[in-house]
Design brief:
Largest sheet: 5 strands, parallel
Helix content: 55-70%
CATH superfamily of one domain: P-loop containing nucleotide triphosphate hydrolases
CATH architecture of one domain: 3-Layer(aba) Sandwich
Number of helices: 41
Strand content: 5-15%
Radius of gyration: 33 Å
Strand order of the largest sheet: 7-8-9-6-10
Shape: globular
Distance between the termini: 30 Å
Number of strands: 13
Structural class: alpha/beta
CATH class of one domain: Alpha Beta
Length: 926
């Protein structure tokens, strides 16, 4: 992800620009991006976006912009907007924003030697794509724009000085005329251009430049050039400037170091397009691709194959080095060793190679400065191993491969190319390349099974294909059967060549681990989720976090796990199979069961801590398993951290409830703690899935209260999808169980959800009766939260029957109680009910105000379904006040949310939208 503020505001992900929206929405993003990583108070945001003329309800309009930007960032990944006490924060590495990267490079240049200073400033200046924040209005934007134009001018002056010190006249002459045209009165630029012309032996042109500047200054400012420029002019006239430096010699050879092309290369069309895009782009900066992926995924094959296809585009040569970052047969290549290899490839005379490494880097970059050279840095261990090997001038293209993400390169402008497992079609294509189309086509079922059992890992597929090619009479079905019989193991991939045996390849890393890290890796085979966090890994191993963190770092360095985001680790299926295989061989059944219990306990109590922050007024579960010893659950400070934790762990939690071990109490507890998050975020299919698991666990436990809970919320979820028969069955079953246990609160919940089920069927009289029963039960049980929700429901059903005054009375009682309780989400629902009643009484202004209050509460709580509900109602109020444009936008936004949630109410919103005759793109006034 990359934020560009130079030129038009852009948000780029994977080489493509995302649509940020209106200029005003671009201003909101820019107002956060210029302070990336730091909180910006709401008042400051409003001032930056609207100057002294904010709209009515400016905060609500701002919230709407922030909500849309959040969704945009979520679609791209890698950034988010977080609300802190001091304001909103664009939570990203500032280096992902071009102007922050520009500032960092300029700051670094101040302490660098001349060659490095020129390189850093050149890299910074090439980020400039035009007037900052182009197309964004406002006084604050104008101030930012002017400040950055001054900083660019200062950087250009310092760059030109450095280039002239290095006798690189051509670069200055190619760049400064355009800059002088943009800043025709900038004397420092004109002076440097005059010096460059002199160095090129073009004194007459230098004198003409002076005459032109003197004329412009006199005409526009009524002044003469300053003393420094006058002195330069005099020195030129008298021939007192030093003679031009002699031109440096060219290298003696054009390197061609690529390894042979890859036989039978298959697939990777998307990755090849990304790499080709770097060749085709007209970027004036050094282009870098950071190609990353796990062991055996085919990074080197991809890059070597692509490099052969484009080598003719690089007449300056092709440099290649295997940095051996993870080679079991030797030590990694040092940057100094690689540098000397490259200088030798150019056949630089020994007497021209400096003794010091930094000086060698300067020479290397000078050699590449005016050449189109392809540089392949294969199998890099980390960014530091390659940083010195990067060219400093445009025209070159660098491709780095590594098992790590190389985020340091990406942060400074490299294009990330992630090499994942092959898709099924690509995997089949690989087998076709090795075995021939006829043999693959003859046994399509066997081929599909081989692809699946090899986890679509190219290394594993290559091993199986080699065996099949060696024995052409073997049926592929027989090979598939052998793989199937050893599923979960690696025996069928074994071979005599350790370079192609996955177990051997993995073992090269495993054998270098400390005992503690090796144990942790084995235990990771028990974790079936897509990834896990640091604290979860610590609980799995029964270790303090402080001891687990360095062990995870050790595993990441060995590339047995990948830290795909800070503090989160994953490995592919064959690595997990390898870990599980080691665990079965080296650890006991008791160890495995204890580790699994700790892992579930970690997720239960971490989710419990997060859920408590999402809903401080929740009911407590009937029973709860104790925190296992040696488990340290996650602790969140506030609502935002709790939401972020649930979002990060969502897939892990859903997977964890399906653990293949009889820990039913822990499984039920885990479902209980995650259900509210799944419901509020609209993950309803997952909610149904885990509730079925919880029901089965409760039945095995013989616990009717827990069974009733699962039936109740299955019914509740079915209500929202209009599966009324299923909802009625589950809710009536829950009611019977709660009555048998004399659980008044449980009965009240069921009556409450039965009321909403009936409302969805337009049976409002019956719905009101059930809501009144719920109210009576809640009051008898002393359950204030439920009492308030029931009062709102009663008010809503009165409104649906046309008794709007009575509806407002009930809802205001509910709102008073919810305000005292601090139940903001429920209060949002009540404000919506009151707005509905006022709208139908004809008081549309008051209705809109109520809806705005509801939207704010839902937005702050992250309750997407509630936001959509309010937007749908807002559209009706705007329509009724003859503002079809605002209605159009409100309903369109509601449809977007409903579609993201997969909710059927999108159809109703579409029907309302279809009734309008407008296609405006104006913002909804809130």
């Amino acid at each position: 992800m990359e934020f560009r503020l130079f030129g038009e505001v852009q948000l780029r992900v994977g080489g493509r620009s995302l649509d940020i929206g209106t200029p005003r929405q671009q201003a909101v993003l820019a107002a956060l991006a210029v302070d990336a990583g730091r909180p910006v108070p709401i008042e400051t945001l409003i001032d930056r976006v609207w100057d002294d003329a904010p709209p009515v309800e400016a905060r609500n309009v701002l919230y709407s912009h922030l909500s849309r930007i959040r969704r945009l960032l979520a679609s791209g990944g890698g950034a988010r907007i977080v609300r802190r006490s001091a304001g909103y924060v664009l939570d990203i590495d500032p280096d992902l924003v071009d102007l922050h990267r520009f500032a960092r490079l300029v700051e670094r240049s101040k302490t660098a030697d001349t060659a490095l200073r020129a390189t850093l400033l050149d890299e910074a200046l090439r980020m400039w794509r035009g007037t900052p924040l182009a197309g964004v209005p406002g006084e604050w934007v104008a101030q930012v724009r002017a400040g950055w134009q001054r900083r660019r001018l200062d950087a250009a002056v310092r760059w030109a000085h450095a280039e002239l010190e290095l006798s690189r006249t051509d670069a200055v002459l190619a760049t400064l005329p355009d800059l002088v045209a943009e800043h025709p009165l900038a004397e420092p630029l004109e002076g440097l251009l005059m010096r460059a012309l002199h160095a090129a032996g073009r004194d007459a042109e230098a004198l003409d430049r002076y005459a032109g500047l003197r004329q412009r200054l006199a005409g526009e400012l009524g002044t003469d050039p300053g003393p420094e420029l006058r002195a330069l002019h005099t020195a030129l006239l008298r021939g007192e400037l030093p003679a031009p430096a002699p031109e440096r010699g060219s290298p003696l050879a054009t390197p061609a170091q690529l390894p042979p092309d890859v036989y039978g290369f298959a697939g990777r069309d998307a990755e090849l397009r990304l790499l080709h895009g770097l060749v085709e782009t007209g970027s004036s900066a050094v282009r870098i691709a950071a190609v990353s992926g796990t062991a055996g995924v085919g990074k080197t094959s991809l890059v070597v194959h692509w490099a052969h296809r484009v080598r003719d585009r690089f007449p300056g040569g092709q440099l290649y080095v295997n940095l051996r970052g993870f080679d079991p047969t030797g030590s990694p290549v040092t940057p100094a060793e690689a540098m000397r290899t490259f200088l030798d490839a150019f056949e630089v005379p020994l007497q021209r190679i400096p003794a010091g490494f930094e000086a060698q880097v300067g020479l290397y970059r000078s050699l590449l400065a005016n050449r189109r050279v392809l540089v392949v840095l294969d199998n890099a261990r980390d960014v530091e191993q390659v940083r010195s090997l990067l060219p400093g001038a445009p025209g070159c293209l660098v491709v780095v491969t590594s098992r790590t993400l190389l985020s340091g390169l990406v942060a400074t402008g490299a294009r990330p190319v992630t090499v994942d497992l092959l898709d099924p079609g690509e995997a089949r294509q690989l087998l076709v390349g090795q075995l021939g189309a006829d043999r693959v086509a003859a046994e399509p079922g066997a081929v599909d099974e081989i692809v699946e059992l090899c986890a679509r890992l190219p290394l594993a597929l290559a091993v199986v294909a080699a065996r099949a090619a060696t024995y052409p009479t073997f049926a592929l079905a027989d090979l598939a059967r052998e793989l199937r019989e050893t599923r979960g193991g690696l025996d069928e991939f074994a071979g005599a060549d350790p370079a192609t045996d996955p177990r051997a390849v993995f073992s090269w890393s495993y054998q270098q681990l400390s005992d503690a890290a090796a144990r942790l890796f084995r235990l990771l085979g028990l974790h079936s989720g897509p990834d896990l966090g640091t604290r979860a890994a610590a609980s799995l191993a029964g270790l303090p976090v402080a001891k687990a963190r360095p062990l995870l770092a050790e595993l990441a360095r060995a590339h047995l796990v990948a830290e795909h985001s800070p503090g989160r680790y994953a490995c592919h299926d064959l690595l997990r199979a390898y870990a599980s295989e080691l665990d079965l061989a080296l650890d006991t059944e008791a160890d495995r069961r204890a580790a699994t219990r700790r892992m579930l306990g970690h997720y239960v109590h971490s989710a419990d801590n997060a859920d408590r922050l999402l809903d401080p007024r929740r009911d407590e579960p009937p029973t709860r398993t104790a925190v296992p010893s040696e488990v340290d659950p996650e602790r969140m400070a506030d609502f935002g951290e709790a939401s972020a934790w649930f979002n990060a762990e969502h897939r892990v939690l859903v997977t964890a409830v399906h653990q293949d071990i009889e820990l039913d109490a822990e499984v039920w507890d885990l479902v209980w703690t995650m259900r509210r998050f799944l419901a509020h975020q609209g993950h309803w299919p997952d909610e149904v899935d885990v509730l079925h698991v919880a029901l089965a666990a409760a039945e095995r436990l013989g616990d009717p209260v827990k069974q009733a809970y699962a039936h109740c919320y299955l019914g509740c979820t079915y209500v929202w999808f209009e599966r009324h028969d299923d909802a009625h069955r589950e809710l009536t079953t829950a009611l019977e169980l709660y009555r048998a246990g004399e659980d008044l609160v449980g009965q009240a919940y069921v009556q409450y959800y039965l009321a909403w089920m009936l409302e969805r069927q337009d049976r409002n009289v019956e719905a009101l009766a059930h809501a009144e029963q719920a109210l009576e039960l809640y009051r008898f049980a002393g359950h204030a939260v439920g009492e308030a929700k029931s009062l709102n429901a009663i008010g809503w059903f009165h409104a649906l029957r046309g008794d709007h005054r009575a509806a407002i009375g009930f809802c205001e009682k509910a709102l008073d109680l919810q305000t005292k309780l601090g139940d903001s989400v429920a209060a949002g629902s009540t404000w919506h009910s009151i707005g509905y009643a006022h709208n139908h009484l004809g008081d549309h202004t008051r209705a809109i105000a109520c809806y705005q209050a509801a939207f704010t509460l839902f937005h702050n709580a992250g309750y997407r379904f509630g936001e959509a509900l309010v937007l749908r109602s807002l559209g009706e109020s705007y329509r009724d006040t003859d503002d079809p444009e605002a209605a159009h936008i409100a309903w369109q936004q509601a449809i977007e949310i409903y579609d993201q949630l997969g909710h059927p109410d999108a159809d109703d919103a579409r029907a309302k939208l279809a009734s309008l005759n407008t296609t405006t793109t104006r913002e909804v006034p809130r």
